[in-house]
Amino acid sequence: MQWLRSFLATPAGRFVARYVAVLSAGFLLLALRPVNDHVVNPYTTFVANESALALNLFGEHARVAGQVLTSSRFSVTIFNGCNGLEAILIFVSGVVAFPAPWRRKLLGVLLGFVAIQVFNVIRVVSLFYIGVFEPAWFNVSHVFIWQSLVIVFGVVLWLVWVRRYALVQAKR
Predict the structure, then answer these.
(1) 102-111 pLDDT, tens digit each
(2) What is the CA radius of gyration of the chain?
(3) ∠150-108-24 over CA atoms, to 5°?
(4) What's the CA gap between 64 and 51, in Å, rounded?
(5) Whole-angstrom Cα distance, residue 97 to residue 21?
(6) How large a percentage of the chain has pLDDT more than 70?
(7) Distance (Å, whole) CA 2 – CA 171
(8) By C-alpha distance, which of 77, 80, 156 is closest to 116?
(9) What integer pLDDT is reported at residue 1 of this predicted model?
(10) pTM summary value
(11) Where are the domains of the chain?
């Protein structure tokens, strides 16, 4: 246990401890039924509506019923876990846990949220078209490719934020 105390006494250890605490609290909060019913589900419907808007720009005549995105060519249900909230939570936890001024953290959270949201809509639209043109590839693309890419995108975005915005203060 001495090694743990020694690690937690370092700046990296304090960051890891804060990150784990914020991430755990975030996932616990998202798992609560009232939060799921009043925040997560409406947010997932919002993602479906954004995706339908994007698809309609391509002439798909997509519509949304609840969390089901459908057109005459394909239908897909956007479940919790496909709404980008996990990637957003991973990113936000990293931003909040990192030692940086709160103004830069707030800017990072806002810009990161928007960037991950746009990336996730691209993901949903891409999966829709995979379902239309290559349905045999849908599950592999959804589970193995896009889920990984969304998480990696959130982590890379955090690294960019740290380098460009959070560490700027430290260099002065």
Answers:
(1) 999 999 999 9
(2) 19
(3) 60
(4) 9
(5) 9
(6) 97
(7) 32
(8) 156
(9) 85
(10) 0.90
(11) 2-171
Token reading at 60? 């798909």
Residues 6 or more apart whose Cβ sits within 8 Å of residue 23:
89, 90, 93
What pLDDT is stored for residue 62 in this prediction?
97
How does residue 80 score in pLDDT terms, banded at 50, 70 and 90?
A: confident
* Of 80 and 55, more confident: 55
Q: How far apart are CA 81 and CA 68, in angstroms?
A: 14
* Contact by Cβ (8 Å): 14, 96: no
**DSSP letters along 116-159, please?**
HHHHHHHHHHHHHHHHHH-GGGHHHIIIIIIHHHHHHHHHHHHH
Instruction: Give the tokens for residue 93.
Output: 């936890």
For residue 9, the 8-state DSSP code is T
Could you tell me the end-to-end alpha-carbon distance of the chain, in angstroms, rounded to an integer? Answer: 36
Q: Can you read off the two tokens belonging to residue 62? A: 């997509």
Token pair 């934020």 is found at: 161
- Residue 81's pLDDT band, with cuts at 50, 70 and 90, is confident
* Look-up of token digits 């589970």: 143
Tokens found for residue 20: 């784990």
